[in-house]
Every structure is written in structure tokens, then in C-alpha cells.
Amino acid sequence: VTRNLSMKLVIVGGNNPQNQHPDFVKHYKNTVEYIHQQGLDDQVILIDWVDFATRRKYYEYANAIISMNNEGKENVYSWRTRVMDYVGSTTPLITNGGDPLSDELIEIGAAFKIDDKDENSVRDTIISLVEDKEKIVKASKKLKGLQPKYYWTTVTKELSEKIKEQSKPYSDEAEFRKINKISKINIKNNSA
User: Fold this and answer.
1) What share of the chain is helix, strand, coil (3-state, %, to 5)?
2) SS3 of 89, please?
3) What distance in Å separates the CA atoms of residue 4 and residue 55, rounded to the nearest whole number?
4) Of 133, 63, 61, 146, residue with least CA distance to 102
5) With 120 labelled, which of 68, 76, 149, 161 sits at a CA distance of 20 to 30 A?
């Protein structure tokens, strides 16, 4: 795709110095080798792991981001901080979904769903975005509209109110246990 559409593909975090697991290292080396064999050195740019504080800057200059996950429970129950970065940078996402935030982005039109992780599905999605740039503009606007939902002041509002009320969760728990007929655990003999 990059060769035919004269675009650049930037892979951020392909090499993670904090995780040198043999499988990850092997995949990275295979990727580097493939790029060289295909003569794509000028079009595919590999950037090692980028720290949390600066990685959003890389996304702000992209037209779209590709993030694919493996299916399974780990993905279903994950909160992908990198996807939160995409929301913050208003950079549309190409994804197969499966994690809660990516699925939300797909649902509101702020991300583009690929049904299969094969190269044809990814290629076709990229081409459709290159041919219709308005899709990217619309998705970016959707991301901008979603941002307030995830502002720190929004996500911590309930907790902040409880703190301001000087709420005592342990007191509330006693009432909850009483209403639901749950007894405290007797630590001495380890019985309920």
C-alpha cells in the first residue's frame, strides 16, 4: 500500500526495550528484515518504544492509526491507554475492535472497523480513506466530540464528590451488608 499510494507508514513502539521477550524480538527482527527485502526503508519508519508523556505527539501528525488486537478475554477486559491517546490526538483509528474503547469509537463513527486482520482488509480500508479524505475529517470531529467524556474532571467527578462530602465508604459498607444480609468475615477463625 505504501509503495502504491506514496505514503509513509510509521510503526511506533515496534521495539520495546522494557520487554525483550524472545517472541517480540523475533517479530521485530522479522519486520525489519521484511522492510529491507521489500525496499521499503524510505516508506516504513520504525520508532522504538515512546514514553507515555510524548507518544501523543506522534499521533497528532498522522492521518489515521492502525491498532489491531487478538481476540480473547484479555482484550475484552482491557483498557487500552494507547487508544485513549488516539482520542486525545483526534486521530482516527483503523481497528478490529474487541476492547471497550475501540468498540465505542467504532460505534460512534470515530474509528474504522476491519473485519479481518489480513493484509487485504487493512489495505482496502487504507485505500478507502485515501480516496475519501472526508471520512477522516468526520471521524476526527467525532473524536473531538467524545473527548469531554474522558476528561479527568469528568471521569473523577463521582469520586471527587464523595471526597467533598467527606463520605466514609466503610460506614456505607456496613449499611450495604445489613441490607443484603452479608456478614463480615471473622478473621480469628476464618469463617463467615
Assistant:
1) 55, 10, 35
2) helix
3) 28
4) 146
5) 76
- Which secondary structure element, helix H or strand E, spans residue 46, and what is its range? strand 44-47
Cβ contact 8:41 at 8 Å = no
Q: At 170, list the grid cell.
A: 466503610
pLDDT in tens, the chain (192 residues): 656 667 788 888 888 888 888 998 999 999 999 999 999 898 888 888 888 778 888 888 888 888 888 888 877 777 777 888 889 889 999 999 988 999 999 999 999 999 888 888 988 998 899 889 999 999 999 999 999 999 989 988 988 887 888 776 666 677 767 777 766 554 444 444
- What is the 3 state secondary structure string of 50-66? CCCCCHHHHHHCCCCEE
C-alpha cell at 41: 526503508
Other residues' Cβ atoms within 10 Å of the Cβ of residue 85: 20
